[in-house]
Design brief:
Radius of gyration: 18 Å
Order of helices and strands: HEHHHHHEEEEEEEE
């Protein structure tokens, strides 16, 4: 797998603006040797509970189909979350008339730009969306851009783990005492704590689907190395169809995958004996955009080891 390309300070500024939150219809078979394999199970996630309306990245109901919402969250909203460039955060945003060409909706124009080799969106150095992401968007636009079902199930308790574990080290405390110091030199160990997907959308890098960092306490700064083995830690993702994907946590506490995951999904962290689980369902996988030092969009702070 190609090395990750991140810019920590930029990723923090972008990542704090949106959360990890959609759906796709096929399982991926593109896992590589530095990504955990997946196994099928029979269990499916329970139906989602009613969700209040909101924007992509907040964990609320956008009105968009889940798979379309995932494309926006994974590839677009790091830039398209304000007034300029125009927002792509909700069903209303996508159905609005383009100011560049009022004969087209923002959805239609967005699709054209995704497929445009000369003036692509997202712009270089970012990678283009994966072919199946473009097809997801194209199929939706071709069907008349219909509204979608609720995609997420925000936790009722603000994101606290089921076991209610403590371990709060205090805002800004780097428990490991070691930092990433190699700048933007590509490595799976780079910029722990930063919002990986957000930075990749702006600065370039692999199209990750799920990425984040595990820490021993709730409040740790960016570039602080997270929880390293021993014991080995695994992030377990269960998608909407019951498929389980295991992501190993590396020496910096980072975990990631490029493999497609059918959202919404649930996540938990385990050391083989103890487990810490999310209480809600999410859609996009830029975990560190919510799980910042102080927490954003309802998350209490960092993703913690059990």
């Amino acid at each position: 797998m190609r090395h990750l390309i991140l810019v920590g300070s930029l990723a923090l500024a972008i990542g704090a603006a949106f959360a990890c939150s959609s759906s796709s219809n096929e399982a991926s078979d593109d896992a590589t040797s530095d990504e955990a394999g997946a196994e099928e199970t029979g269990a499916k996630l329970p139906p989602l509970s009613p969700s209040s309306s909101g924007q992509a990245g907040t964990g609320q109901n956008t009105g968009l189909p889940c798979d379309v919402q995932a494309v926006l969250e994974d590839r677009c909203i790091a830039c398209h979350s304000g007034t300029s460039p125009p927002p792509l955060l909700s069903y209303a945003d996508l159905l609005a008339k383009s100011k560049v060409d009022p004969t087209k909706t923002m959805a239609q124009l967005s699709l054209e730009r995704m497929k445009d080799k000369m003036s692509p969106m997202p712009p270089k150095p970012a990678e283009a969306p994966d072919p199946e992401e473009i097809k997801t968007f194209e199929d939706w636009v071709g069907a008349g851009s219909p509204k979608g079902a609720i995609c997420t199930d925000p936790p009722p308790d603000g994101g606290a783990p089921k076991d209610g574990g403590a371990g709060d080290g205090g805002a800004g405390t780097c428990t490991s005492g070691t930092l990433w110091k190699d700048g933007n030199n590509g490595s799976p160990l780079m910029h722990p704590g930063a919002a990986c997907n957000a930075c990749h959308q702006v600065m370039g890098g692999p199209n990750l689907r799920i990425a984040g960092t595990i820490y021993p306490t709730l409040h740790e700064p960016n570039d602080c190395n997270g929880k390293a083995p021993p014991p080995p830690l695994t992030v377990v993702i269960t998608d909407k169809n019951g498929k389980v994907t295991n992501l190993p946590v590396n020496a910096a506490g980072n975990f990631f995958t490029r493999a497609r995951v059918n959202a919404p999904y649930k996540a938990k962290v385990t050391d083989g004996t103890k487990t810490r689980a999310m209480t809600g369902s999410v859609t996009a996988g830029d975990c560190n955009s919510c799980h910042t030092d102080l927490g954003a969009n309802g998350a209490p702070g960092r993703v913690m080891a059990p």
